[in-house]
Design brief:
Length: 115
């Protein structure tokens, strides 16, 4: 059984930074998987924020380009999202996802940006 556990969310003032992490555990080798981050704000649909392929190809949501950086450590089965210059509109529940060899979601970690 595969589990994804996010950590690192919290409350930060606008302009601040946070790094969220997502570790995969169980019978899986994440090196062959696509990993990514999604977010969902209250009353809004879930949206894809950043994705990194097994080969290192990266895509970002337009509104976070230049501010967020996704990275992965395959030896640790972990994906990270470094978020800089945070804005109140970045407030959401952030989920990680691992797919391509199954489809797995984490439980989410709350990021709140105060103005």
């Amino acid at each position: 059984q595969v589990q994804l556990v996010e950590s690192g969310g919290g409350v930060v003032q606008a302009g601040g930074s946070l790094r969220v992490s997502c570790a995969a555990s169980g019978s899986i080798n994440s090196a062959n998987a696509i990993m990514g981050w999604y977010r969902q704000a209250p009353g809004k649909q879930r949206e894809q924020v950043a994705v990194i392929s097994a080969y290192g190809s990266i895509n970002y949501l337009d509104s976070v380009k230049g501010r967020f950086t996704i990275s992965r450590d395959n030896a640790k089965n972990t994906v990270y999202l470094q978020m800089n210059n945070l804005k109140p509109e970045d407030t959401a529940l952030y989920y990680c996802r691992l797919w391509g060899i199954g489809n797995y979601w984490g439980q989410g970690t709350q990021v709140t940006v105060s103005s």
